[in-house]
Amino acid sequence: MMPRGSRQCPSPQVWPSSWRSASASRLRLTVAVPDSTIRSVTALVVGATGATGRLLVRQLLHRGLTVKVVVRSPDKLPGDVRSHSNLSVIQASVLDLSDAEMAQHVNGCDAVASCLGHNLNLKGIYGPPRMLVTGATRRLCNAIKANKPDKPVRFVLMNTTANSNRDITEKVSFGQRCVIALIRLFLPPQLDNERAADYLRVKIGQNDGAIGWAAVRPDSLIDESEVTQYEVYSSPIRSAVFDAGKTSRINVASFMADLITDDDMWGKWRGQMPVIYNKASS
């Protein structure tokens, strides 16, 4: 879900751009990524056992990356992912790792992706840690900086359309601002998501020598079995509260994987908070 965006938004980027018709009502993505461009890429993923995180891990492994995951329960990973030769599993809670351990795990990684979120139950919403996403983002960024990488590490955060990008002007109605204020007051995950993105915007900024970042904002998440055509905007085009669109988790995973593996895609969205919709809902 997301706030209404500025009318000055550029035309959307429609992705994937290469398609072939599978039937009158179904499209299938055709992916062609040269092995030479991704063979040496290593990514670390947190939130890898979540509904979107496991799809991202599968996407990255399918593209030939070496993937590290930090998970509390490895048995929650899909079997084909858990047994993949390019996967390294670190069994731990990301917030329980020491600074030295965190730095060791991110050392040598070209990208870090966070799909962390709160479980939608009373304990997950109101229990500790209330600032799970923010705390993990801060600690991962500190670990990256401690390693003094030769080139900026790509940090891709899964965020929410209920959060505005305060680096630019995004039009949000008075009614929506009121609703979001109430959500922020009574549902701690909203504030956690806002602070995580704000950490990247304000503390890391646009010109950090160790970290480049992008915060991906899907609208209302749905489950689909295949990647479908979607559109990416720099700002929302519809209200998160009163006119929510839909975004499939597998499309979010595909776009996040593109940000990690595709230099042109990364160049377009680095330092921004792109908004992603399934094409039919935008």
Enumerate the spans where pLDDT stays under 50 for 5 or more consecutive residues: 1-10, 17-39
Termini separation: 12 Å
CATH superfamily, called what? NAD(P)-binding Rossmann-like Domain
The CATH architecture assignment turns out to be 3-Layer(aba) Sandwich
- What is the CA-based Rg, rounded? 18 Å
Element order: H for helix, E for strand: EEEHEHEHEHEHHEHHEEEEHHE
Number of strands: 13
| Percent helix | 25-40%
Label this structure with key terms.
282 residues; alpha/beta; Rossmann fold; nine-stranded mixed sheet; two-stranded antiparallel sheet; 13 strands
Task: Describe the overall structure.
The protein is of the alpha/beta class and 282 residues long. The protein has one domain: Rossmann fold, CATH 3.40.50.720. 34% of the residues lie in helices and 21% in strands. The protein contains 10 helices and 13 strands. A 9-stranded mixed beta sheet has the order 1-11-13-9-8-7-4-5-6, sandwiched between helices. A two-stranded antiparallel ribbon has the order 2-3. A two-stranded parallel ribbon has the order 10-12. α3 links the parallel β5 and β6. α6 packs parallel to α8 and α9 packs across α10. The chain is globular and about 50 Å long. The N terminus is likely disordered.
